[in-house]
Specification:
By secondary structure, the chain is an alpha+beta fold. It is 39% helix and 38% strand. Strands 2-1-6-5-4-3 form a six-stranded mixed sheet, with helices on both faces. Strands 8-7-12-11-10-9 form a six-stranded mixed sheet. A hairpin with a 2-residue loop joins β7 and β8. It starts with a helix and ends with a strand.
Length: 265
């Protein structure tokens, strides 16, 4: 399979996911995942691992709702397809939610034959989504109560508690540190950029490892960013540099310092 054909197969696999969601085609959607696949949705919550857990994920979060994905950008790097999206969820109660997200599909592409999703990571903020629903007043309260009952019925107490883990993570502190790191990189301030990082952080641009923060600064010319999302111990951002439009992924250690930064265009 040529590189061009491989990219086409990866994108076709990723595009098939929201198409199956829109049709409520459970069989087609589940068939996109490898037997050992994982879904981290949202990142930071308890992951759904394996075919049985992923089927329960569908029954819990997709089956009762009408979901539309508004795509602003997508890109391919190595075995991963990134999508910058807004997820529009319309619940049976009549409540509609608009959730900014970055989706990361890690794929298993066969030399010849089908391509499968082996890991889906959905970066969105559970706390912000719950706040949005509560601002809808009685409708939001009724919708959240219904979601809780359905979550317990499909996932059990362990699954429900695992879902609430999505409320933790680096949060506002992580977004603030990401802002300071991006500002320092844009301004070419290597000392200020280093101050936001743990000792010996790793940097990757389009799958290529960089030897130092000096090299990262070279790639940061014209850096602009928006849509910072904190999920779990990671922050994602939509970025633009001289290289074009892309997505950044920052991973934090337990002390809230950046240990890894990936830019993919």
């Amino acid at each position: 399979m040529s590189s061009k054909d491989r990219v086409a197969a990866m994108l076709a696999c990723v595009h098939a996911s929201p198409e199956a969601v829109a049709r409520h085609d459970r069989t087609a959607w589940l068939g996109l995942f490898s037997p050992d696949a994982e879904i981290h949705d949202p990142v930071g919550a308890r992951p759904h691992c394996g075919a049985i857990a992923i089927a329960r994920f569908y029954d819990t979060f997709i089956a009762p709702n009408r979901i539309v994905f508004e795509v602003a950008y997508e890109g391919v790097c190595d075995d991963t397809v990134w999508r910058d999206v807004t997820i529009h969820t319309h619940m049976a109660t009549g409540l509609s939610l608009r959730v900014p997200a970055h989706l990361r599909y890690q794929l298993r592409a066969q030399p010849s034959g089908p391509c499968y999703i082996r890991r889906l990571c959905a970066h969105w903020e559970l706390g912000s989504m719950l706040g949005q629903s509560l601002r809808s007043g009685w409708l939001g309260l009724r919708s959240n109560a219904g979601l809780t009952r359905h979550l317990l019925a499909c996932q059990g107490m362990t699954g429900a508690i695992g879902f609430t883990r999505g409320l933790g993570g680096v949060g506002r502190r992580g977004r603030g540190r990401a802002e300071r790191l991006f500002t320092a990189l844009r301004d070419g301030d290597k000392a200020a950029a280093s101050a936001q990082c743990a000792p010996q952080p790793t940097f990757h641009v389009d799958g290529v490892s960089l030897a130092s923060i000096d090299a990262l600064v070279e790639h940061a010319r014209g850096l602009q960013w928006r849509k910072l999302i904190a999920a779990g111990r990671q922050v994602t951002a939509s970025i633009e540099t001289a290289s074009g439009h892309g997505i950044a992924l920052l991973t934090f250690d337990k002390r809230g310092r950046v240990v890894q930064l990936r830019w993919e265009f």
